[in-house]
Structures are given as structure tokens and as C-alpha cells.
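User: Here's a chain of 107 residues. Predict its fold as C-alpha cells.
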Amino acid sequence: MVIVHKDPSLTMKSILTTPQGERTQERQVSLGGIESARELEGGGKVLTRARWEGEKLIFQQSLDAQHPVVETWSLSPDRKTLTFTRTLGSSTGPLSSRMIFDRVERK
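Assistant: Prediction complete.
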């Protein structure tokens, strides 16, 4: 994943490897609580609001106004580890996950 932060926006680019081959995804969100919309490949729309809360970046997302997702990004003090905590709301209760990314310097 490559993340580029240029206020007032954040661009994320990732390459996914699946049994069907590689797919590149790129998304851009506005920071400061401004809503961004992104169309999904299979139909539907994701609405995202991103804002800073101290040192953490908080994303509030919804899929067609349903299934709320709150994602929190935090960067370690040495700026080498990025932690994503994601909580998905559902009719059976919240589901949480955490992903940890180590920084790799570009060559």
C-alpha cells in the first residue's frame, strides 16, 4: 500500500493479488470531515468522512447509508508502523479487526 498525504486529501493505492489475478485499487478521501463518495465495482457507493482526532486519523464510512464502518489509523512514534483498527456495524453486533503495516522505504 502506498499512502500519500497532501492536505487536504489522502490518497491510498494498493495492489491486491487474488486467484483471478492482480487488481489495483486507488482511493482518495478529503480530510477535515468533508464527505467523499466512491463508486464500487459491483455497484453501490461508499460514503466516507475523515478527520484528525489528535494523532489519529478517523474514517467514518457507510455502504449506501447502511453497514457503518469506523476505521482508526495510528502511526507509531518512530513512524515505521501504521495500525488500522476497523469496526463494522451489523445486525448481529460489531465486528472488529486490526491490521498492522510496517513501513518499507522506496528504492
